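Obj: model holo form, ligand = NAP.
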Amino acid sequence: MKIAVVGASGNTGRIVAELALEKGNDLRAVARNPDVLENLASRGAEIVAADLDDREAVFSALSGVEAIYYCSPLAVGHDEPFAAERARGRNVIDAAQAVGAKHLVLLSAMGPEAAPGIPLIETKRAVEGELAATDLGYTILRPSMFMDNVAMAGPEVLLGMGLSWPFSEGALIQPIAASDIAQVAFRAMTSGPRNRSFKLVGPEALTFPQMASELGRALGSDVKFAEISDETFVEHVGAAIGSTEVAAAIAGAYRLWERDGGGTGDASVIEREFDLSLTRFRDYAAQLADTWKRAGLI
Ligand SMILES: NC(=O)c1ccc[n+]([C@@H]2O[C@H](COP(=O)([O-])OP(=O)(O)OC[C@H]3O[C@@H](n4cnc5c(N)ncnc54)[C@H](OP(=O)(O)O)[C@@H]3O)[C@@H](O)[C@H]2O)c1
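Output (holo structure tokens):
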């Protein structure tokens, strides 16, 4: 099958692209920067540099493909990031229709079904709606927080300051590994159910102190958890990603997921529908420790 992965250097797209190659598909890997896709090129992928804001470039990047994975990246460099993410979604959906693709897998986020009034989630809701209104085959994936987020600050911060999140100590969430999202996305494109939306939660409901404790066990050192205010989160994450507006919307999504069990769900649906055994947080933490050890970071 000819598959396009849009965002092929990202957390999930990188793994979807690897799976597509491993299973013998023709892969077109799309991102802005072709250099970071070099490893996929050396394994036979066709590399296309295209900016999602450039409608014509998107149409040309998707020509001739049968299935598309679209991670809908946050439009952090824009003055109006949510309008920009919507416009990008429209470019990809229109292009998918124009090129005669059979199936589009959209990475969304948990929450659109509730219409919560948070810009990040309302944007996902709008893009989902535009996709579902087409005659394209589609799968909408609404992930919980990625397990991989806990590694973003790196070992120095995790082992020094600990795990700091705008989440209260007793609140439960079911984080999911990016590798599992990628497995679901790949299976959805090649053999999964059509025209459905899935809440992608991990296999265990955990508190942040429990995640910190599992990280500490894997890393061989104490990792503490501290709840931080939305303001602190927005200040730090806003500076890191270059958009306080997007950081504030991410904090809003966390608070939404924290309320009323919104961050939890039935993981057995995904395991059954996609024939997958989901990664437990303890195993994710062990893999992370192994990766950091091999890279000489700890
Ligand atoms: N992390 C979480 O906990 C979480 C939870 C729920 C939902 N999500 C959703 O997950 C999505 C992000 O997925 P991800 O983490 O797999 O992606 P990611 O790691 O953020 O990577 C984004 C990918 O898109 C490409 N990209 C970015 N801007 C582009 C542009 N203008 N034109 C073309 N390509 C562009 C990037 O490559 P280049 O920079 O080289 O172009 C990269 O390959 C977001 O929509 C987020 O809302 C995340």
